[in-house]
Amino acid sequence: MDDQEGTFIPVIEVGEWVEGRVDWLTGNFREAFRTFSDLLGTLINGLIDALLFVPPDLMILLLALLGFALRSWQFALGSALGLSAVVAMGMWEAAMQTLGIVVFATVVAVLIAVPIGVLAARNRVVSNITRPVLDFMQTMPAFVYLVPAVILFGIGFVPGLLSTIVFALPPGVRLTELGIRQVDAETVEAGQAFGATPRQILRGIQLPLATPTIMAGVNQVIMLALSMAVIAGMAGADGLGKLIVESIARLNVGLGAEAGLSVVVLAIYLDRLTAAIGGSGADKSLGAMIRRSKGRSMAQRVTTGI
Amino acid sequence: MPAIEANEVFKIFGRRPERGVRALQEGKTREDLRKQGLTAAVIDASFTVDPGEIFVVMGLSGSGKSTLIRTVNRLLDPTAGSVVIDGTDISSLDGAALRRVRREKISMVFQHFALLPHRTVGENAAYGLKVQGLNRSDRETRAEEALGMVGLGGWGASMPSELSGGMRQRVGLARALAAGTDIMLMDEAFSALDPLIRREMQDQLIDLQQRLDKTILFITHDLNEAMRLGDHIAMMRDGRIEQIGTAEQILNNPVNNYVAEFVQDVDRTRVLTAANVMEQPVAVLGAGAGPQAAHKLMREHQLSWLLVVNRDRTVHGLVWSHQVATAVREGQEDLPLYRDGLRFTTPDTTLNDLFVDAASSPAPLVVRDDDGHLVGVIPDVTLLTAMANGQPAGNGQSPESAPPGIQTPTDPSTAEVI
Ligand SMILES: Nc1ncnc2c1ncn2[C@@H]1O[C@H](COP(=O)(O)OP(=O)(O)OP(=O)(O)O)[C@@H](O)[C@H]1O
Ligand SMILES: [Mg+2]
Questions:
Q1: Which positions 178-207 of A are in contact with B (Cβ < 8 Å)?
Q2: In this complex, do B99 and A196 lie within 8 Å of one another by their Cβ atoms?
Q3: What is the pTM (predicted TM-score) of this model?
Q4: B281 and B237 part of one domain
């Protein structure tokens, strides 16, 4: 390249260096990566098989019921219609494969992100270290993750899954940290003043009060995971993404539209569902109602002296 | 043993705060410290709070009140000095021991209530007990009890968001009461409430304190609140405690201009109470005595009226000298008792409320405690003098000078009927 003409800055071969690292890893740890890859592959395939084992009609019913429990009957009806359309377009299997990746990646990402977020909220040093790392992870174009992932783990679900996790993780950490830092200082003091341990304060005060913010983070994790799961189709992961890649390769507009619409249905369903768990709708949801009626009957027992 | 004892407590915010303590001890000012990037929030504060009293720390915004109260349960570590709770120096306790003190000895009520919004009122009131590890049914019983004490019985199943500000602070109070600690810290606990509710909460606090014998460290920036609640008041300015004393001492003997200016606008009639201005009656008459005894007593002491008191120190009535004279002249057996116009009040009624009572009767105001026992009297003159200069007006005569056979209300053992 002739970028270096007219400059004194020496050439640094970053690309070569990264390539060298990846080669070194594959050279020395081929077996370890293979084993890890097989294990993850088994897990994700198991999850997808389970999703596909349930007949589509029943699955749609279950998902709609979940929507009813957490949100409203309108939402349940809407999602039932949307998901039926996916079946009607013949996209059900691909949609469940994509959903499998999204669910799996989200669970793993949240399990990693929340504890890191908690640590970052309590410790300045951790916070200062994680921030630039998260910036890096989030701004690096999504496709770039795929290349080393494919080299390390081969073609299939696993590289897609791993790059999805890496790509979707940051908002989980960020919003957990933010949520916990935002908890009213006086309320945390109240916990301390009554002699609660740091653990009791975390579980009884900080996490519950940070839940809406953390759930907003989870919502973003899911949306990022979904967008990345589509891109993961390029790495050979079966699902809607692979169909979209195919439709591009074959210039098949129909296939692209069907797969794209299915992605939209999934996205809206997941977005509204997670928003309901953390958002302002929480007061009206079934879960909140159950909790409160339990509280009522308890108070009655106390006042009547039973 | 004092319930709380603070010894030369300093709290300085900033990097390497210890240097600030040294500088202050060498005579540097707060402003000097500010230039070095240090905030001296509490400077050399010492005070003791006796068990069963309400100790009020009073000062303007930024004077370091919150910081001071937080060093008492070590939500903040003092930069220097020590805090002793019930004989234990808490400055040196490790985490677990400190938590034990917070669970067993000190609870706290917060300015903005600091309730858990996702928990019911009952669960909030039971928070301290949950932390203590009490089982659920005991927790619920005691929380319900505490809610009852603050007038929120039956609200246990509601959510805090359904309650008004005053009610939420009652929950905060119930949470502290349920914890069962002897000491309660209250940081501007009523400042976020509107004046009417605030007044109500103050009355309730005084009532609870008397019933439960709690030791209360109360923070406020409202002087009237301080005077109403405090057995002792510490006046704080710019991190230092300027004066500690009773409401009367601070009103009547301010140690410096700052305190004097501060209290000059206080409406004394709202601060001073019947107990502050009442006198002991020079003499009282036993309920069994006749007009002759009354006549003799009144002549001896030059009295125009005399209280008639039962054996148990409840007030039987009052006699006027001219009526007694008539009764003696006409040889009547019974005392000419005056009862209908007699006005009563309690020791903690403020002067401005007394004024209404006093104006409606020629007889002196009789001060009785809650059980109806005589504790003092307030003649018109005394009340008017008190109004005029805010000082108790004595009559120079002590009850001890009363002749034998005459009861003094302060000493029930001599309650002999003539
Ligand atoms: N964590 C902190 N870091 C730095 N400075 C602080 C901190 N907390 C309090 N201060 C400073 O200490 C001083 C005293 O604050 P404090 O909150 O104790 O005052 P206060 O009397 O309670 O005031 P208010 O009536 O406004 O509550 C203030 O100048 C404040 O800015
Ligand atoms: Mg304050």
A1: 184, 186-187, 189-197, 200, 204-205
A2: yes
A3: 0.76
A4: no
